[in-house]
Amino acid sequence: MWKKPCVYLVGAGPGDAGLLTCKGLELIKNCDVVVYDRLVSKEIMALIPEETEKINVGKNVGDHPVPQWRINEILLEEAQKGKRVVRLKGGDPFVFGRGGEELELLVENNIEFQVVPGITSSIAAPGYGGIPVTHRDYCSSLHIITGHGKNDSEAEINYDALVGLNGTLVFMMSVSTSATIAENLIRAGMDKNMPAALVENGTYGKQRKLITTLEKLGETVIRENVKSPAVILVGKVCSLGDKFDWFDKLPLKGRKILVTQPKSKASKLAEKIKSLGGEAVLYPTIRTKWIRPISPDVRNFDIVGFTSEAGVRSFMEYLREEGLDSRELHGLDIAVVGPATARALEEYGIKADFIPEKVFDGKTMGLEMVKEGFALKHQRVILLRAKEASRDIVTVLRDAAIEVEDYPVYETEYIMDNDVGEPEDFDIITFTSKSCVDGFVKTRGKTDFTGVKALCIGKQTAAAAEEYNFDIIVSEMATIDSMVEKLEEIL
Q: Which domains does the chain have, with CATH numbers?
């Protein structure tokens, strides 16, 4: 794929990372530099590896801090350095995305390029709003129009022709000109009572859909304070917006939830929140770092214990680095803290011998290992886990006369450059570990969060959050699924 310098013009879609194409995802994960726009969502930006260079050329209507001619030059310059360049654009690069303009300079300089289409918001936003842009009983054509011409001038639109087509009209980048569009369509002969709709922030958890009429379109934009990005639809299919609405009916729709998991894990909880219509804002306050060098002599122990997925992955990667494999665990009993850790182990072809019955934390793991006779007096246990972790499981096992070695295989670092607004802006904050609580507090620069709701994955995490006066809610079980169930219940 990367034999020569090449620019990949990639459509990022309307915002929901689930609508990014597989090819687009592969490219942004393997390139050297990403040149991106304002409309590329934070969720998609979070998929780009930290080491990848990122160049922001974002612009709004009437506000172009990086002019188009300079964007064209940046693409050329980066490619001429021999870099693998992804030009990441919201929606589809060839649907009012100025993609064609950006290719001109590349062609003139014999730079290879490829185009990766994206899902355009002109069809995605209506789809998430329950509006089918085509329907045989209502229309026979679809027309996508921009409300702005070159250099932000008023677009030259043949309104008489549009009215005569009797199809669905989708206007992009047209919020500020909505009243003018409506007036011109009515003047050209369209019924003033023709159904119309606005979909703001299409495919995001904060999406808003407004159904109105052509005559009241401009008035609705002003009254409801509609902001870009938004698409405007005019046509009979808009009358189906309430009947076919599915997104607004999702249980977490309209809820804004802060997810504080490490970046490597955040997608699991965030994706489940999004699937229920919620707006999941990622706030990875910590990152996981493997400790190296390590040399845990697991063969001298009876039981190997893992209290997190990270511990599993660090140890298994260590084996791979040393030219070893899962056979190093042959004959040993393996205990894990919960189902998620067990699944991580299964990815390497290993099945855990012991998982706690219900509550998934270190202390419970130790108590049940002793109670169930999994760990016996004078046996030797090695715990492969975080450098700074609760000592509860160590205390429980040693109190039962079991020899324990607490062996750190990874550590966590705080991420200090997050900017997501104030905690009070969210309906709730989620914490999946004590380190997430500590990381959040450290990055916020204060210690009193009275009145801020926090959903915690277990008792240890809740105890950490209580120290900072969060309004605590604890999931029934220490699993992501249980946290999601609790979110549905309380929100």
A: 6-119 (3.40.1010.10), 123-240 (3.30.950.10), 256-285+415-490 (3.40.50.10090), 288-413 (3.40.50.10090)
